[in-house]
């Protein structure tokens, strides 16, 4: 993608895309995942897991300062050579393929369980992935505008957990440090999927119109995710307790029962509707990132064409784990390995960028 004026976005839009690529069904699953290992201290593990997005922001800030006009894909080819660089970029691309398909299948399961139980899951999945493909076709600028609008929905949807303060029990989160360090660290790895998607920052930092604000907004994005996830997990545990969480697939949804709105008979329906919009945005962001990387490898094809080409593949992959138990088992296997790859891949490029002397003066 050319760094033309039409493809430029602001740092605030990057903030919205960064948070938008990460916040998805993982937020609803997170309390269950960490509480299974760290029990009532699961929210502490979420904070520890927040080191991952903060670390990525630090690396991105270094790369943006050293090579402001080169994204991670170009730097990979520069330091590793064309063949190895493109191969590593392809592996990096499947980060976003994984996030796209996992969120799409997760949203399908949620909707067919609570709202659209009359619709065959496969048909709904085909429609959901199609919306992601159409959004990806529109390009970066329209996608950034959509993320700005839907960011407000993200804040609103997180409010139901706050309502649980009035009906929760303090004993549910006590003792605060009731598990050993090993359990806290092991549970922190369960939050990796929820933080997944922030890697999109390495594709977009050269496309900023106000680069001086990049580090500030990127850091705010990472901190927003940490605060959102940690507070939601804490409040879910506070309201439900460990025993009730173990009996539910999506414990956070139980908090919506504590909200009573006189005009609205079923607040959960409203919550699920808004949550679906947020997840469509998450799918679209990661779908676009997948196509962005692929277009860098296949420069003859446009983003629009590749979005359509990727549609059958995305749908096929997502359909392989349309069962919630199979989906969680697969993610538990795949996400830690991809997280380690990302850390090794990005850290190596960052180290090589620091050694390189001519980053700021080099022309495309």
From TrEMBL:
Annotated membrane-spanning segments are 12-30, 42-63, 83-102, 114-134, 146-165, 185-205, 217-239, 269-294, 306-323, 335-355
Q: Name one GO cellular component term.
A: membrane
Query: What's the source species' lineage?
Result: Bacteria, Bacillati, Bacillota, Clostridia, Eubacteriales
* Keyword match Iron: no
Compartments where located: Membrane
State the organism named in the record.
Clostridium luticellarii
Q: Which Pfam families match?
A: Spore_permease
Give the keywords, sorted.
Germination, Membrane, Transmembrane, Transmembrane helix, Transport
Topology in membrane: Multi-pass membrane protein
Record-given protein name: Spore germination protein YndE
List this protein's GO terms for biological process. spore germination
